[in-house]
């Protein structure tokens, strides 16, 4: 099945990007203004209520939208349950936040049946998650359709691994129309959220006494020992740690400060500081939150434009986000 990918707008300046988005992708800032005028308010209230109960929700939603967009484009395909779907792949089994999207969808099906796509709900929920975590608010063009396919086989070839090198990440991002600067900016999402111990286990090895020892010289020694305390040898696969050990629930520039201090949780974080192509950008962002917020808004919009599907032949509006329409 053919899909529309908005490669041509990705290189445009931010202000042109927003103004011309509709002419390229069939999306618009007021897409639901007549058909479902309260959609953004309802989704934001849903995210806010969920976060009040579970403070980890913002990080989960941000990770969820990335895993959706990076594979088959921003089409809600990661939300579909079933054997051999994207959601079933081991790289996605630790994802969370699905219930937030489903709750918003149920309300919208009552108020505006058959109007709002799960793909748009997920993008808006992730946008709101950042704002609720004290990050920037981004005006997001809407009108995406939900994809009609979801295949586990598409996940691994398109997914960033936490042990990737700069070259591996750059190649993958470039294939999606994203730049090296987008890589640095979007990695800033790790300023919130949690990770399972297995996501950074390659940075440690089991010593002769059965305890873990750090083997990655880029890790701050004190931070490495703290991670070992939280994730000892033989720790349950359910154990998680904060991506950001300082301001875990706040969307800020602490992530970049952590990289400079040798406290990047993943190998893919630390290489941003050790590689000359990205080091200066990390250092610049670590001292200027306004710059980070502006850049985040631009890179987030580029990310949520990947693989956008519009037009009846491209997708559908699912009744339930977890299953295709019959």
UniProtKB/TrEMBL annotation:
Its EC number is 1.11.1.7. Keywords: Oxidoreductase, Peroxidase. It comes from the Eukaryota. This is Class I peroxidase protein. It comes from Dioscorea alata (Purple yam).
């Amino acid at each position: 099945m053919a899909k529309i990918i908005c490669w041509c707008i990705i290189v445009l300046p931010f202000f042109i990007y927003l103004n011309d988005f509709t002419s390229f992708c069939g999306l618009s800032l007021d897409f639901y203004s007549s058909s479902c005028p309260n959609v953004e308010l309802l989704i934001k209230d849903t995210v806010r209520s969920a976060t009040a109960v579970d403070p980890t929700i913002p990080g989960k939603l941000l990770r969820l939208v990335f895993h959706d967009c990076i594979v088959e484009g921003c089409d809600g395909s990661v939300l579909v349950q079933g054997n051999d779907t994207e959601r079933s792949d081991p790289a996605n089994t630790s994802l969370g936040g699905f219930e937030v999207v489903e709750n918003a969808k149920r309300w919208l099906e009552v108020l505006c049946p058959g109007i709002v796509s799960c793909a748009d709900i997920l993008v808006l929920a992730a946008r709101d998650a950042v704002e609720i975590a004290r990050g920037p608010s981004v005006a997001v063009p809407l009108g995406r359709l939900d994809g009609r396919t979801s295949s586990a086989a598409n996940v691994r070839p398109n997914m960033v691994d936490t042990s990737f090198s700069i070259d591996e990440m750059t190649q993958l991002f470039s294939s999606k129309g994203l730049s090296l600067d987008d890589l640095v900016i979007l990695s800033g999402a790790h300023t919130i959220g949690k990770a399972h111990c297995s996501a950074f286990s390659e940075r440690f090895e089991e010593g002769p006494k059965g305890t873990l020892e750090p083997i990655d010289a880029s890790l701050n020694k004190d931070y490495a020992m703290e991670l070992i305390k939280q994730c000892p040898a033989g720790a349950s696969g359910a154990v998680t740690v904060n991506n950001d050990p300082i301001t875990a629930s706040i969307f800020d520039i602490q992530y970049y400060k952590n990289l400079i201090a040798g406290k990047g949780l993943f190998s893919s974080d630390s290489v941003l500081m050790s590689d000359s192509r990205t080091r200066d950008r990390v250092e610049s962002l670590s001292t200027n939150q306004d710059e980070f917020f502006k850049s985040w808004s631009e890179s987030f919009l580029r990310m949520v434009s990947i693989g956008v599907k519009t037009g009846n032949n491209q997708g559908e509006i699912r009744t339930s986000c977890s299953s295709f329409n019959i």
